[in-house]
Amino acid sequence: MAELKEARVPDIGADKDVPVIELLVQPGDAVKKDQGLVTLESDKATMEVPAPFDGIVRELKVKVGDELSEGSLVALIEPAAAGAAAPVAAKPAEAKPAPAPAPAAAPAPVAAKAEPAPRPVAASAPAPVASSPSTPPVAFDADALLPGKVPHASPAVRLFARELGVDLAQVAGSARGGRISKEDVQAFVKAALAGGAAPRAAGGGGGGGLDLIPWPKVDFAKFGAVESQPLSRIQKLSGANLARNWAMIPHVTQFDDADITEMEAFRKKLGEENKDVKVTPLVFLIKAAVAALRKYPAFNASLDGDNLVLKKYFHIGIAVDTPDGLVVPVIRDADRKGLLELARELGEISAKARDKKLTSADMQGGCFSISSLGGIGGTAFTPIINAPEVAILGVSRSAMKPVWNGKDFDARLMLPLSLSYDHRVIDGAAAARFTSYLAQVLGDLRRLLL
Ligand code: CAO
């Protein structure tokens, strides 16, 4: 057997500890350069770790669930036979002394060593590419991975689609996470030949089916002085996610006000007693949201095809505004934490977000998100749901308002709530009950004990 070479995770931008969700090859498989070995899924994108050269996978060093970062070892690959590979001997700097002279075109002695026979490569092979013995990392273009820009499909499927002249952006992916399989491409072609377009996957899976006119191309400089600033990576990634969520989820926003006069008095008292931690209204909102999620489980759910997956845990995402854009770290098991513990953790994750130290793991597994603009201002807004969650709570700035008590107007501190929900899962009555209950809990925190 020829010397085994390593396949490692290439540059995947700032993502770290990205979980493996799928093994695309097995030991013994023949792979082509750039063919996917494993699929990684961060909270922002699904990406494949490509084979750096043609060869046969001899050992997979990872399993589903492992968390990988740039440089992690994924597999050991026996490079393809010398005749098909790069002229190794012609690169003196990297050449190692050969143990025995062998003709350059000699095939690797796979059969002679009774290695398992390679499984056939799924799609027709791409043009031979010279492989390098030093297995240089294949650069990942984070932009090319943005959902909505490039459909999720393996290089083999992309090649297959190219050969058939199929635009993958038109194809609905039926595989896990909306990935497009070879069968999806075949189904698309069949439907096209039959005179119709292939149906798009519904609920939770598949891509958007918007048939939009192109984005206007304007020479702004014609109308006055301009300056062009590149979007940050976070802005590009969150923008792509927001656009998909806005386009694919039928959003409705329910507004309500909570009377937090008593809550605010208690919050101030708590702050005076605990100077080491900043207790803002947000921690009360996290606790109240958990109580409402418990009472109305459909809000603590995700669509998965035709199923609604109900979660028995309470991980709350918090939208954090950073100089580079919006990120949503997750506070885990908020139901098991007290107000002060939540306040500490909120301070920590906000600082981590602003210092750009959040990892993918910090932003995964959320059940429900809260976006608070209360520290800034405004009276209401319509937050965009953080898919695959089904609802998000927007919070605006509290204000003293006259509230009719049946006889007089009382001055009460009112907190505006804006709950956006996925109308495929939640109907308007349920949303109104959810916000009413939230307001009740915030109005009388003793309800948290019920
Ligand atoms: N009404 C009135 N005052 C409020 C309030 C509200 N609803 N919410 C917070 N405040 C006050 C706080 O008590 C604090 O006052 P003091 O400084 O006097 O103690 C001040 O506003 C600033 O609070 P904060 O913003 O630092 O803290 P927070 O816990 O409320 O929020 C965080 C933390 C990380 C969520 C916030 O800093 C942030 O990034 N918000 C922006 C989120 C965002 O961009 N959402 C939009 C996304 S698009 O959907």
Features:
OB fold (Dihydrolipoamide Acetyltransferase, E2P); seven-stranded mixed beta sheet; alpha+beta; Chloramphenicol Acetyltransferase; 19 strands; single chain; binds oxidized coenzyme A; 450 residues
Task: Characterise this structure.
With 450 residues, the protein is an alpha+beta fold. Helix 5 crosses helix 6 (339-354) and helix 5 packs across helix 7 (428-443). The longest helix has 16 residues, at 233-248. Strands 9, 12, 15, 16, 17, 18 and 19 form a seven-stranded mixed beta sheet that branches. The chain folds into three domains: 5-79, Beta Barrel (OB fold (Dihydrolipoamide Acetyltransferase, E2P)), CATH 2.40.50; 101-248, no CATH class; 250-449, 2-Layer Sandwich (Chloramphenicol Acetyltransferase). The chain starts with a strand and ends in a 7-residue tail after the last helix. The chain contains seven helices and 19 strands. It has helices spanning 155-164, 182-193, 233-248, 261-273, 281-295, 339-354, 428-443; strands at residues 5-8, 18-23, 30-31, 36-41, 46-50, 55-60, 67-68, 73-79, 251-259, 301-304, 307-310, 316-318, 320-322, 325-327, 330-331, 368-372, 391-395, 399-404, 409-422. It binds oxidized coenzyme A. Oxidized coenzyme A (CAO) binds next to helix 5, strand 13, helix 6 and strand 16. Oxidized coenzyme A binds at residues 280-282, 318-321, 326, 346, 350, 371-375, 383-384, 395, 397-398, 415.
